[in-house]
């Protein structure tokens, strides 16, 4: 069972390679994002983290997850989306990326959505804080639009420094 193999004629980012996959929808500010549900290990309420000296600002610190110390990234700080507010809706999405466990703080999670090829549009080129390098595309569900994030690529990027480059 290899759902990661691409069919001939499709190239990464054209939407064909993610068709029929399920995405966890979450919010950051007023925008909705989606990540591959297969990368999600669990979803937890926000808890106080232990700060690490000299860590980048977007790395909130670490938490002890059943005996495993994991780094926690605040995506609002990472994407420069204003001052984060931590309330009862704030959650930490625990991700398993290349065998490494990482926490990701988001404003809230909404649902899990399956996207068909027609619902995935390529990401437009734009000069924003959110680099299109980390976008798979845009998922459209009725009036909603999900910014689909390549969470592997984002978390293994050099500026994150959390995970060694994943083997291609």
In words, what does this structure look like?
The protein has two helices and eleven strands; from the N terminus they run βββββαββββββα. It has helices at residues 75-78, 151-155; strands spanning 22-28, 31-36, 40-45, 59-65, 68-74, 91-97, 100-106, 108-114, 120-121, 135-141, 144-149. Strands 8-1-2-11-10-9 form a six-stranded mixed β-sheet, with no helix packed on it. A five-stranded mixed β-sheet has the order 3-6-7-5-4. A hairpin with a 2-residue loop joins strand 6 (91-97) and strand 7. The longest helix has 5 residues, at 151-155. The two termini are 18 Å apart.
Write the layout of secondary structure elements.
Blueprint: E1 22-28, E2 31-36, E3 40-45, E4 59-65, E5 68-74, H1 75-78, E6 91-97, E7 100-106, E8 108-114, E9 120-121, E10 135-141, E11 144-149, H2 151-155
Parallel strand pairs: 2-11, 5-7
Antiparallel strand pairs: 1-2, 1-8, 3-6, 4-5, 6-7, 9-10, 10-11
């Amino acid at each position: 069972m290899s759902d990661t193999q691409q069919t001939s004629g499709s190239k990464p980012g054209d939407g064909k390679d993610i068709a029929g996959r399920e995405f966890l929808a979450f919010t950051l500010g007023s925008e909705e994002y989606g990540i591959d549900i297969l990368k999600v290990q669990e979803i937890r309420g926000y808890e106080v983290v232990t700060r690490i000296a000299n860590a980048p600002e977007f790395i909130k610190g670490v938490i002890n997850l059943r005996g495993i110390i994991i780094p926690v990234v605040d995506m609002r700080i990472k994407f420069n989306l204003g001052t984060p507010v931590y309330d009862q809706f704030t959650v930490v999405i625990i991700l398993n990326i290349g065998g490494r466990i990482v926490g990701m703080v988001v404003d809230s999670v909404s649902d899990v959505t399956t996207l068909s090829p027609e619902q995935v549009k390529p990401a437009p080129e734009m000069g924003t804080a959110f680099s299109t390098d980390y976008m798979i595309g845009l998922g459209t569900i009725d009036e909603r639009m999900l910014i689909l994030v390549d969470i592997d690529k984002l978390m293994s990027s050099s500026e994150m420094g959390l995970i060694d480059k994943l083997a291609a």
